[in-house]
Amino acid sequence: MLNIRRIYNGRWRHKKKKAILFIFLLFLVFVRFAKGSFYKDFYYYISKPFWPGQFQREVISSSLDQELLIKSKQLENDNKRLREILSLQRLSDSETISAAVISRKNGSWWRQIILNKGSKHGVEVGSPVIGPGGLLGRVKNTSFLTSSVILLTSPESKVGVWIDRVQKQGLMVGTGNDYPKLTFYTKDVDIKVGDFVSSSPASTVLPPNIPVGIIQSVDANSNSNKTVNVLLLGKPQAIDWVQILKMKI
Amino acid sequence: MDQFLKRNLSIISFIFIPILFLWHPNWLGIMGIQPYWPLFWLLPWSMIHGSINGLIVGLFLGIILDSISIGGGFTQIPGLMLCGIWFGRFSKSDNVVVSHFKYGLICAIGSFLCGSFYFFQFLIQEFPYNKFFLFSPSVKNVLAQVFLTGLLAPLFCSQLFGLFKRSKEKMF
Question: Does residue B115 sit in helix, strand or coil?
Fold first, then answer.
């Protein structure tokens, strides 16, 4: 008698199928409850290179940059030409000389710094000196190897500055402390705390639009003119390297 | 060489005053203000060599310091000359404590004198522009300088006095 016995060998496979089905079901439940967010986020990443306008935006942005660059260059050229006509100060083409601060007096009568570049390196008397932040002062005298810079905080320092927001000029005078006084020779100037102060575009001493400081406070006591305190952006007490701007008229 | 250094110690130390003045060590100052360095040298030197020599050295010091500082029309010469004359009239006290106190007090008054001279020059020359803006920072400058000079004078002056005295004895 034949012992016909059917050997069942697909059982484990059926179990695996059921497990896969169960996991898939769980996944569908997750998708359902997550309101498809997983799919949406996944789609976000895979579709990103094909978004409409992405390429276009880059093209437009690049064109705008180029346009602004060309405009800026044109304005710079115009500015140079007009300043030349008006005989106003402008930067030399050779631009700046880097120098290290080798002596610093910023808290007593003598508010000055001494730099390690002098007439040998082409430094000239009257050249503006800038540091990180903005204008620090002007070269007062030079020796063969060094130059002395009178700081904006020195009582001897007097520079014409410009408030861009109200388009007004004033005279900034050092007072021997860290906050020079800026005087406007009219009472009707709408100056506010926080206004930006830069070198005057009409200055015959300094190149235009060098950042100088911000208005710290407005004096209420002055009568015929308006006086404000300026917080300087360049901090001579903390600066070890400066740039001497070469000027030409 | 050693003999040369000992004999000319006062001249060699004189050369270092402008260097110290330029160095301006911030860690020794208050609110960025330094002691008035030349007085530490001028006081012992004038006490040993007298008023006339004090006047001349005060003039020399003033000329050198004016040349290395941007002062425009302002000068330190009158203050230092007056201090040179005045310092020459003092002699060293035998009591160490009195002597140290004396150095401090004399240098503080000398610093006040020099600072006031400088301040008045500022006021006179800058008055049309600055009005009273200068007043407060200048008073702060003078007072801080007087305090620091008076505080450090006993330390420096007593050492320099000893050195100058020995140097003078070796010369003659």
Answer: helix
Chain A neighbors of B71, CB-CB under 8 A: 109-110
Instruction: Out of B22, B31, B115, name the one closest to residue A103 (CB).
Output: B22
Nearest to A110 among B23, B69, B133 (CB): B69
Tokens of B102: 């004396």
Cα–Cα distance measured from residue A249 to residue A90, given in angstroms and rounded to the nearest whole number: 6
Q: Which of B70, B129, B134 sits opposite A148 (nearest CB)?
A: B70
Q: How far is CA B6 from CA A73, A75, B169, in A?
A: 67, 68, 10
pLDDT at A165: 84
Contact B70 A155 (CB under 8 A): no
CB contact under 8 A, A176 and B32: no
Distance CA A190, CA B125 (A): 31
**A109: three-class secondary structure by DSSP:** coil
**Residue predicted with more confidence, B8 or B106:** B106
Q: Which amino acid is at A214?
A: I
Is residue A211 within 8 Å of A235, Cβ to Cβ? no
Instruction: Tell me which range, A139-143, B96-100, B103-107, is most confidently predicted by mean pLDDT.
Output: B103-107
This prediction's pTM = 0.70
> What integer pLDDT is reported at residue A19 of this predicted model?
85
